Amino acid sequence: MIRRTRAALVRLRDEDGGVTLVELLVYLLVLVIVVAAIGSLLISGLTGQRDITAAGNAASESSVVAESLTSSVRTAAQIGSPATVAGVGEMFQTATATFPTVSTVSWSCRAWLVTIDGRILTRVTTPAAVVPAPAGLDAAGLAGWTLLASGVSPAPGASSVFAVTSTRVRITASIAGPADGTPTIVDLSVSRDALPSFATLGANPCV
Length: 207
Fold this sequence. Notes:
Helices cover 32% and strands 29% of the residues. It is α+β, with helices and mostly antiparallel strands. The protein has a domain at 53-191. A hairpin with a 3-residue loop joins strand 2 (83-85) and strand 3. It is elongated and about 95 Å long.
């Protein structure tokens, strides 16, 4: 009986000999494949999310630029010619009317700036007075200016971002936003509307 029990224990010990080196290597290989697949899916998801966010930022900035121009140019009495600011970019100004009540008018000077490093900024002076040209591209030089869009360049086929006449402003721009994602193309023309008879500007305060 003792001999039979001892033989059974020996057989059990032989059957429970643990994991062989080959089995361990196979397990490790399977684990590496699974981890690599999960990592690839995670990276792909993060990349897709980043691209979606960048595209959303570009579209949002494009809308801000379009709204800024539309709201100001339509009620402008005067649209000034673009002026080159050495080492900074190009800017133009409008004398724009706002209507606090249905029969009164308030005037402001509104300027837009396209910088040589691909930004669009705007600045407003109320009551109306000439918007001074920025002194530089750093924070001090652009004090008082509000950033509307970044990653800006002329749209394919266009020689400049803004085309300005005395009655109309056209923007043809590629706007990539701060993350340089897929750019949004903006091609928008805004013309001056006829102002009410009481909205008389007189001498242009924005030149």
